DNA sequence: TTGGCAATCTGTAACGTTTCAGTATATTGA
DNA sequence: TCAATATACTGAAACGTTACAGATTGCCAA
């Protein structure tokens, strides 16, 4: 019997079906292999053939099938951004995402967001990504001096970039904001305004930039001859309420600080509320220098002194770094440090 | 000659290689097909075999290869969140993302973020997703009454959910905040405090919830017998500076409003700044009711009156809706509307 | 005994891509 | 002239999965 099952690309290239290499091969009269190679500018394809194939491909809107490529080559064309989803005012997360997408916009890469919650081991999502081969590159944040995730990925040879540096004697791409410089500038600025008893609202304890910030603060303190008012019970990933209450407590003591350096805008809102709860006035009784990632603090209180940190830039740099590493660049050359702006008072 | 190329899964299951169905087949002594069917609880597999296969699979940590599944079935196990990346204070974006990831966490789905910029046609990213078959489901925001993206996806039969409703007589899943109720409540609350000349800071003009908000505002105005002070030159996706300047201008006129209803927290910061630029005092000269998505407005000014909108919830609902549609549920049953909280003054 | 049928299991092909190992034709060197 | 070699192209196999169309077995009714 002649009953023959008609195969997919058998006849014409008319249909609504998405074009594949087979479609292109049929249209150009070439073999699938040749088409494949022509599209990626392989050397052993004639110049004219190459142009012809590429023209036709463009005309009919050929797009390589990601699943096909991924199955065959293992290349996913995916970058994963690993995020902790249990923090309060993470408005900067969208900035990072936008920064990343900006860079990968004209590449074949997709961005996937891989979440983990506080209760989990931060290594979990990374392990998942690596074990399932779900991404060609990974971006992590909340970096620690001795970061198991970085170590893990380094061991498996999977490209990644960290937001923040590590301190393990291992080299890998990163982007960081110079928090040492930030804290130093803040202290010097406050000293310049006659403030001499300063408190620091630190980053989360385990993270690398905690150390940078604390050191920058301490070094500048001794440089300008100011003193520190310990405020160790507070860090920026505590709740607004906690920070507010503790600040109010602190400000009701006689040995209260006359200046604050705050590592995050959200915490600063709470600090100011606490200061005012204690009946004191910003700018008169106490000055506050804060980092911010969007221009909102000056709307909040004009007396605030701000330093801008650009998270969109961070996202872009991190994406560039991962792509660079994937592309074979030297990891050591993919490190960048962002210098803080000056301390900015409200510009009338 | 006996030179035989050794194939991958030929011998043992020892290696570091990631286990595949072939590995499982070898270990269980079954055929690949049987293993495949056993893992998805197909009926024609013996109960004991099924258990055995699933046990072994769990033991060795088998994870289906996404590329293989996707190539064979067309199922991507991907949800795409389509975002406009050119707006100012989009802090709620991270909330939506977290809400989505919460829901898909214990599913095989990954979340990809697909950006588009203001200059582009909003249909572009959606077209890309559909044409390349890059996602099983799509979530869009900035929904319009007559939304080409919804229409497009409806035509192609690709599951999606919109953040905000459409008004095309077509049924599809959505999640929306009841902005009609919000604006109404806000007006009534202000009227209750003796305010009678109210201005509305609207959502962006083309979006569906612009209409809902405007109608809720207007209907409540006539209900309570208050009047509107037109403020059409301003909407919430303008820049902070523009809103601030125009508010200040408005507040310097003799026929200025004594109450504002604001559709977004970021705009509210600018409104308050404008009010104060004009030398007026919040709570005395004018009251402002504002939506907010995080608890920051009361830190900003205690006199503000807030209504909370939960974007994390929106993300979860949207994800649930898309997954439901993908799972074959009736699109009409996947619509939800979130009721605003009461108007909340600062709770001492 | 035989035929029919349900219950289980299996091999093959296909999804779209790239790599491997070629083949056919033209070009070169002596 | 012949072989060697470069040029331009090609089919088959493989990545891991699922769907299709059987194959094998045991059991029961006739």
Q: What features would you describe in this structure?
A:
Chain A has 348 residues and is α/β, with parallel strands linked by helices. The first copy, chain A, is 42% helix and 15% strand. Chain A has 13 helices and 11 strands. A 6-stranded parallel sheet of chain A has the order 2-1-3-4-5-11, with helices on both faces. Chain A has a 5-stranded parallel sheet with strand order 7-6-8-9-10, sandwiched between helices. In chain A, strand 3, helix 7 and strand 4 form a beta-alpha-beta unit. In chain A, helix 1 crosses helix 2, helix 5 crosses helix 13 and helix 6 packs parallel to helix 7. Chain A is elongated. The N terminus of chain A is likely disordered. The structure holds a DNA duplex (30 and 30 nucleotides).
Low-confidence stretches of chain A: 1-14
Number of strands of chain A: 11
Instruction: Indicate the mean pLDDT of chain A.
Output: 92
What fraction of residues of chain A sit in β-strands? 5-15%
Sequence-ordered SSE layout with sheet pairings:
The structure is a homodimer of 348-residue chains.
Chain A: H1 21-28, H2 32-39, H3 47-60, H4 66-73, E1 78-84, H5 92-104, E2 110-116, H6 123-131, E3 137-140, H7 148-156, E4 160-163, E5 174-177, H8 179-192, E6 197-201, H9 208-224, E7 227-228, H10 240-252, E8 259-262, H11 265-277, E9 287-292, H12 297-300, E10 305-308, H13 311-326, E11 335-338
Parallel strand pairs in A: 1-2, 1-3, 3-4, 4-5, 5-11, 6-7, 6-8, 8-9, 9-10
Helix pairs in contact in A: 1-2, 2-3, 5-13, 6-7, 8-9, 10-11
Chain B binds a DNA duplex (30 and 30 nucleotides) through helix 2 and helix 4.
């Amino acid at each position: 019997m002649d009953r023959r099952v008609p195969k997919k690309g058998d006849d014409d290239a008319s249909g609504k079906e998405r074009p594949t290499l087979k479609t292109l091969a049929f249209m150009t009269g070439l073999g699938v292999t040749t088409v494949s190679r022509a599209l990626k500018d392989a050397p052993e394809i004639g110049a004219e053939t190459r142009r012809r194939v590429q023209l036709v491909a463009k005309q009919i809107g050929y797009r390589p099938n990601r699943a096909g490529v991924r199955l065959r080559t293992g290349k996913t064309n995916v970058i994963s951004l690993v995020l902790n989803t249990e923090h309060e005012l993470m408005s900067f997360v969208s900035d990072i995402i936008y920064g990343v997408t900006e860079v990968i916009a004209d590449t074949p890469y997709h961005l996937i967001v891989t979440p983990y919650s506080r209760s989990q081991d931060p290594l979990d999502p990374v392990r998942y990504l690596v074990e399932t081969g779900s991404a060609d590159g990974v971006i992590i944040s909340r970096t620690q001096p001795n970061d198991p995730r970085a170590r893990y990925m380094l061991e498996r040879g999977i490209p990644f970039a960290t937001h923040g540096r590590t301190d393990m004697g291992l080299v890998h791409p990163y982007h960081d904001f110079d928090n040492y410089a930030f804290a130093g500038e803040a202290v010097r600025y406050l000293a310049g305004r006659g403030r001499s008893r300063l408190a620091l609202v630190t980053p989360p304890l385990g993270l690398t930039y905690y150390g940078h910030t604390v050191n920058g603060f301490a070094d500048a303190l001794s440089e300008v001859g100011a003193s520190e008012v310990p405020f160790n019970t507070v860090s920026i990933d505590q709740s607004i309420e906690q920070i507010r209450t503790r600040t109010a407590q602190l400000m009701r003591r006689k040995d209260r600080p006359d200046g604050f350096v705050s590592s995050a805008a959200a915490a600063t809102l709470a600090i100011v509320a606490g200061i005012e709860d204690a009946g004191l006035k910003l700018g008169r009784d106490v000055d506050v220098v804060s980092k911010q990632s969007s221009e909102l603090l000056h709307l909040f209180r004009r007396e605030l002194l701000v330093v801008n940190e650009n998270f969109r830039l961070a996202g872009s740099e991190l994406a560039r770094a991962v792509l660079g590493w994937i592309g074979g660049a030297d990891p050591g050359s993919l490190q960048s440090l962002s210098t803080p702006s000056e301390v900015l008072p409200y510009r009338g």
